[in-house]
Design brief:
The protein is an alpha/beta fold. Helix content is about 50%, strand content about 15%. It has a single domain, classed as Rossmann fold (3-Layer(aba) Sandwich). The chain is built from 9 helices and 5 strands. The chain has a 5-stranded parallel sheet with strand order 2-3-1-4-5. The chain is globular and about 50 Å long.
């Protein structure tokens, strides 16, 4: 494939993003391309702070709205570094000939860091200058399946509860309904190889 792609995988927790990212990376490599998975939060300094915060190893506030606002600022700062840093930024990697697969992008900030219209507009403004990916892939699963899969994790993160995930799923539906660029919505309850093949078929058709 001549075009080097910036592909984003989105969905609520445990929808299968990491699995599909690995399968997609392997597909590109088997096609003779170079490919890399570059997740958000990133592996940079701000990204590591975000990860520690989500695991409750760093504490900011008990106020949920203030917490979401602080996380939105951190994610936006991390996202700028993730896209544009000269070492392993997304566009640096693309310029070097890599297909770049990104589990979570600004869509996650819109879904997770806003619970009111005012907050949604605030997060939208923070992220308004970030470019859309070449392809957005959304893996759709029911809340119950997400919670069931999350029970198998050893560490529970701050947003991993039914109330929050229900709210997040509704936000994703709003975001996807308004999104105008290339996207693919997939039933994430299907087996991983079926999902992978749907993704490959779509990429081969569009690119």
């Amino acid at each position: 494939m001549n075009k080097k792609l910036f592909i984003v995988l989105e969905g609520i927790d445990s929808c299968g993003k990491s699995t599909q990212a690995e399968l997609l990376k392997d597909y590109f490599i088997n096609q003779g391309d170079r490919a890399v998975i570059s997740p958000e939060p990133s592996n940079g300094i701000i990204g590591n702070l975000i990860r520690s915060t989500l695991k409750k190893r760093v504490f900011f506030t008990e106020d949920k709205q203030k917490f979401d606002e602080q996380m939105a600022y951190l994610f936006a700062a991390d996202r700028h570094d993730h896209l544009y840093n000269d070492i392993d930024g997304v566009f640096q990697l693309i310029s070097k000939g890599f297909q770049v697969i990104v589990p979570r992008y600004y869509f996650s900030s819109l879904a997770y860091n806003s619970s009111t219209t005012k907050q949604f507009n605030f997060v939208s403004k923070l992220n308004s200058n970030f470019p859309n990916p070449d392809l957005l892939i959304y893996l759709d699963i029911p809340i119950e399946i997400s919670l069931e899969r999350l029970q198998q994790r050893s560490i529970k993160e701050v947003y991993e509860n039914k109330e929050k995930l229900t709210q997040v799923k509704e936000k994703y539906q709003q975001i996807l309904g308004d999104y105008q660029d290339l996207s693919l919505i997939i039933d994430g309850t299907k087996d991983k190889q079926t999902i992978h093949q749907q993704i490959i078929d779509f990429i081969e058709l569009k690119f």
